[in-house]
Amino acid sequence: MQTQKPEKCLGYGVFKAGESLKPVEFDLHPLGPEDVEIQVTILLLNDSFFQKGKIPSQRRFLFSLLLLLLLLSF
Amino acid sequence: MDCLYIPGHEIVGYISKVGPNVRKLKIGDRVGVGFQANSCGTCNDCKTSKESYCPDSLWTAGGKLRDGYVTKGGFAQFHRANQNFVAAIPNALSSAEAAPLLCAGITVYTPLKYAKVGPGSKVGIAGIGGLGHLGLRMAKALGAEVYALSTSPSKKEEALRLGADYFINTKDESDLKAHAKSLDMVLNTISDLPDFTFLFGLIKNHGTLSTVGLPESNIQVPPWDLLRNICLTGTLAGSPSETQEMLDFCAKNKIGAQVEILPLEKVNEGFAKVLKNEVRYRISLAVNPQLDQQHGRN
Lengths: 74, 298
Fold this sequence. Notes:
Chain A has helices at residues 48-51, 56-73, and strands at 8-13, 22-27, 35-44. Chain A is α+β, with helices and mostly antiparallel strands. In chain A, strands 1-2 form a two-stranded antiparallel ribbon. Chain B folds into 2 domains: 11-102 and 239-251 and 263-294, Medium-chain alcohol dehydrogenases, catalytic domain (Quinone Oxidoreductase, Chain A, domain 1), CATH 3.90.180; 104-233, 3-Layer(aba) Sandwich (Rossmann fold), CATH 3.40.50.720. Chain B has a 6-stranded parallel β-sheet with strand order 9-8-7-10-11-12. A 3-stranded antiparallel β-sheet of chain B has the order 1-2-6. Chain B is globular. The chains are: A alpha+beta, B alpha/beta. Chains A and B meet through strand 1, strand 3, helix 1 and helix 2 of A and strand 1, strand 5, helix 10 and strand 14 of B.
């Protein structure tokens, strides 16, 4: 089975809450059968998670880590 | 574990690629994406076109797909999304004014729709900001008599320009008394308002208080006002079909968000302005503005 090489994209992002946004290159998710790819022209700046210094994926990661530590402690 | 977070929803752009099963859209179409990238498709909310309430809702930015990929938002050159969560942007709207409608716009449209606001309705919009300025314009376009509710008398002129028929200074007891129990509905867009007492005081018996602004703490409600059959409710944005309906409504009534535009490279400067509350009323980030010219759009 051949694995498709991920397509790269430039954007602005952060790895940790509280950081300033920096230019980053990331992998686009493979285009699914019902997906469209949109070349972005404009978007809203506001992002409530980012403004509140929280990152959803990071929050889940920390929660998972905490859960794992709890399970290991038993 | 991918901890890279690319923020950004309320995205407008042009379709550059389509998957083999995409039937609704084609390359070159101008489209928009709101806060939601997908939903389970099987729960009761999904089956009744209320996808925004799906418990397995996937967020446009920071949502986790089954394969572990964390969805990347629109602060980027490209964005990939499911065709069912992509809306067509009507020709009458510019890309800049359409972008904030995809979340802010739908957030204020659905409560007005659910409350059946129309000609003869008296509607108060509390808070004249990013959400409230759209609420004023939509309520007016629906045919209501519109009341702007604000603690800032300096916003009166702007509120009247945006479509309000009357301005109520909510810090002025005499103003509140003069309009007591007179409104059919109040739509609250203020997020740091934990005490709803004065809002209840403005609503008629059997009226509605819908809030889309949520404080960090619990909300205070005057219990005796609940016995006046006032419905206290809140809505979570809207479904893809409601978003399309809202965009078409806005295009027909020439309602676009009032935006400042910054290039994507100035994103940190933009966030600083938002945090200092210096924005009237939304900032949009131009990622690739030449695309609109290339497609003959504004």
